[in-house]
What we know:
Distance between the termini: 22 Å
Number of helices: 4
Strand content: 25-35%
Strand order of the largest sheet: 1-4-5-6-3
Oligomer: single chain
Amino acid sequence: MSTEKELASRERLSCEIDIAPAFYDIDVMEIVYHGNYVRYLELARSALLAQFDYDYPRMRDSGFAWPVVDMRLKYVRPATFGQALKLRANITEWENRLRIDYVMRDAQTGQKINTAHTIQVAVDMRSKEMCFVCPPVLWERLGVQP
């Protein structure tokens, strides 16, 4: 069972955004084209990292690039034009890699639309070498321990 402190920490490491698919997001079958979910994940990931003042420009300024090296999506049910959606992003790993888990739900019914996760690794921008342990700047920004 999770303690209140663990729950509060998890909540602090999450962000929820609203999405309403535009007409240009829809395919010939009148549902959101599967490739557009990747863009939605990026919107949520950017909002989440901005909460910690560690968005992509700040990452670059700290000397690290954080490429996505793995991405998994599970399509549970289709989203449609103008449907009000909630997309929650949660940081779940930060010691050796940055893992963010996502859940997209219909804003009105709470029905699950999509689940996903992304994994990013730190790359030293000077040497172009991958770091096998996340740099301390990430832990400092997130306010977590390795």
